[in-house]
Amino acid sequence: MLLSIKNRNEVNKKNFFKLSLRSNYTYCHMSTAYFSAGCFWGVEYYFKRLKGVIKTTVGFMGGELENPSYKEVKTGLTGHLETIKVDYDPSIVSYEALIKYFFEIHDFEQADGQGIDIGSQYLSAIWVNNTLERDIALIVFGELTQMGYHPATQIREVATFYQAEDYHQNYLDDRQETPECHVYRKVFI
Questions:
Q1: Is residue 97 in a domain?
Q2: pTM
Q3: Does residue 36 lie within any of the structural domains?
Q4: CA-to-CA distance for 66 and 73, rounded, in angstroms?
Q5: Which among 9, 47, 99, 107 is least surrounded, fewest beta carbons within 10 Å?
């Protein structure tokens, strides 16, 4: 469902949360973005380190099966993509900045997966909540094309997000590992 700007603002009013900092309370506005870029562990690893990102959750989006397990999605038969939910403070990091960072942490020109992870569940996608997000994504696509890149990334409308099993959350950090299929490289000036 695409939200109008008026409705989007009404929805965002519900997304305020209380952040406790040494018993002082600060109210922050929170927005949510969704990205798929291959193995969600590496995507989470990088987004967690971006200033303005409040929380990340790994999971699945885009398939037909309700509440899929990692084992089911890994087969490539459910239609889901490994996806990361990024809760962020738009007063610190913009949606456009998130998209640009997304392109800088994976090979967005690879059409069949990401690195050694090959299959439909590892495709690159930006999941948009509304027409404004779609327009921003298209502008960034245009910038990449002007730079000579050929993005294989899809722009899709947000679907139901299913959180992956608990052991997948913070996977690389909990194991003190770094991503195998993702590396940061500066693309935008």
A1: yes
A2: 0.84
A3: yes
A4: 11
A5: 9
Residues designated as active site: 39
What gap in Å lies between CA 160 and CA 28, rounded to an integer? 25
Give SS3 for 30: coil
The Cα–Cα gap between 18 and 38 comes to 32
Could you tell me which of 84, 55, 71, 102 has the C-alpha nearest to residue 162? 84
Report which secondary-structure segment, H or E, holds 111. none
Residue 148, SS3 per DSSP = coil
Residue 99 in domain: yes
Q: What are phi and psi of 54, to 5 degrees?
A: -90, -40
pLDDT of 1-28, one tens digit each?
Answer: 233 333 333 333 334 333 434 334 455 6
Q: What is the CATH number of the domain that holds 107?
A: 3.30.1060.10
Query: Is 187 among the domain residues?
Result: no
